[in-house]
Amino acid sequence: MSSAFDQPTAEPVPVPEARPAAPPPTAADAVVSTLDGVRDTAARVRAWMRDAVMGRDDVIELVLIALFGDGHVLLEDYPGSGKTTLANALGNSIADDGPEDGLPEFRRLQFTPDLLPSDVTGVMVFDMESNTFHFRKGPVFAYVVLVDEINRTTPKVQAAMLEAMAEKQVTVDNITHKLDDLFFVIATQNPLDAVGTYPLPLAQLDRFLFKVRMKHIDRDSELEVLKTWGLPKTRATLPKVARRAIVESRGIIRQGVHVAEAVQEALVDIARNLRADKRVLQGVSTRSLVLAIPALQTLAMLRGRDFVTPDDIERLAVPIFQHRMELLPGIDDAGMVIKDAIREPLDVLAKRTLKGA
Fold it and tell me: Looking at 41-192, which runs of residues are DSSP E strands?
């Protein structure tokens, strides 16, 4: 399939360079009604993240897709890779216009073996003056939550966190408390240090839209980080994005970006190829295909289209599927298995697209 639809990758924005005159740092218009409006909203969020980290355009794109696709992201990374800075910039890009006053834009959770579920979700507290219990919210009550080293805490705490991710709610003392509609999680785990960890089972990994294996940034970007370290940032001039604009954008993407039946058939064929592959012990679930649709729609929107193409599937297949299947012992390259599985369905889809099928 021709790559003419692809959006060219922009160079990282140098931190110290002055920007042209920009609007004051107030929230962007909360009302979004068109794909162009959604694209503008996404561009504002992208600008915040690119202003904070360098050489991470590929990761930033996937985080954007997950945010606007109403999913969550699991980053496999190394210490000092900029994940906290990235998540913090994302949280700071959002203006608090939610139904609850004072909800934090960003919270960070460091998962440790001694953590309790109540440390994540919140706890019922007795008020001596009123002689009643009231709910004290935990750190998951925020727009953007960074969960550091999610595999370092016990399965009970992981389950509490993953209930919040899947249902956008927490249950404390048999009482359900709703999270904000925007609620978005970036979780991390160290791919090398496995001592003292509690690996997430496939059923829990399936709750993440993407698993992203981060790599070290290129030489030029790393050198630029050293040159600009400690210099003033320019993000104070960037306009914030209204929370409502992001929530509304999700619905507009679902309704405004067309997913042809041929695209759906290609996804099903990819899943069936993965399940039939002799290198795969357990294949991907049907839920992974359902979650893939809004992700593909969001990527198409970011690239200026109102329809999904084979190139979109090729771009997202590995981050969508690699954590949702179990390979045979000795088989480590999930990316290669996935690329083999998508080749024939995408060739068929490309031919059908050219014929207008």
Answer: 73-76, 94-95, 106-110, 122-127, 132-137, 144-148, 169-172, 175-178, 184-189
